[in-house]
Structures are given as C-alpha cells and as structure tokens.
Amino acid sequence: MGVARTGPGGRRESEQQRLDRLWGELLREVRVALAGVQLLFAFLLAVAFTPLFPSLGDADRAMYVACLLLGAAATGVLIAPVGIHRVVTGRGLKYEAARWGSRLALAGLVMLLGMVALAVLLVLRSVAAIGDTTALVMAAVLVVGLMLCWLVPAAVMRHGGGPAHESRHDRKRPSPRG
C-alpha cells in the first residue's frame, strides 16, 4: 500500500488514501454547491411562465437569459466531476481526476456567483422597483460579500496567513523517511 506519510493536521496516510480522501471531500462539496445551483435554476426556469415575465424590458430579458445560461453552465460544470469519475474509475487516474474535478468545482462556483448576482439584480430592478443604480450597487455589494466568504479565506490560507500557518512552521517536521 505504500509508505504512510504525515499529511495535513498530523494525519498519517498513504498517497492513495490521501487521494481517496480528497476525492470524497470534493464530491461532498460539489453536492452542496449543486443543490444551490439546481434550486436557483429551477426557479429561473419557472420565471418565464409567470404573468410578470412578458412585461420585462429588453435589458431585463437579456439579464434573465444570461442568468439562465449561467445556471445551465454551472449545473453542467458542477456535475462534470461525477462524469470524469465514472469514465476514469479503475484506470489509475485518481490524481488527474481530482485535479480536474477541483478546477471544475471552482469554475462552477464562479458561474454560481455570476448567476446569483444577475438573479438578484434582475429581481431588484424588476420586482423591488428601486432605481437601476441602487440595484446595481446592492448586487455589487452582494458579489463582494460572497467573494469575501467564498474566496478570500481560502486565498489567505493557501498563501500562508493565519495561526495554522505560523504553528505549521514553528513545529519540527518529521523526516519523510520516518
């Protein structure tokens, strides 16, 4: 099974165990994101059949179409890791599948962010009857807030900020040979 190594958090796992863990974590994350995308996408599909839809102006219809297409794309991109897994299972490509799955999940989250922003902007412009500038500012604040929640903590952790980074470098690392 290979030599166990110390992983994140002092975890001892082989490379295969690490890949299995990462793949499982990725699929759980995708399930969460996909549920949100599908729920919003279903509501967007239903909007076209409401009495209010014919009264939308050209700009609002264009935003609706862009939002709908982002939803369809996000759904497809977030489902893609499952398709990849099905096709490459048993072929020794778990590392590559995990890398592609991770990239696709991130792309799906970016599409979800755009979809949420457009949906909120569309509702604020059309239903809330507030001014275009106010609606745009509110949607922009939402996007910035979501980016702060979704991306900034990960970027800070990845580039070595915070207490985990400091303690990681303060403690003595075991030799890879044991």
Automatic annotation (TrEMBL):
Transferase listed as a keyword: no
Domain of life assignment: Bacteria
UniProt keyword Transmembrane, yes or no: yes
Bilayer-crossing regions: 30-50, 62-84, 104-124, 136-156
Sorted UniProt keywords: Membrane, Transmembrane, Transmembrane helix
Pfam families: DUF6328
Name the record gives this protein: DUF6328 family protein
Organism (species): Streptomyces peucetius
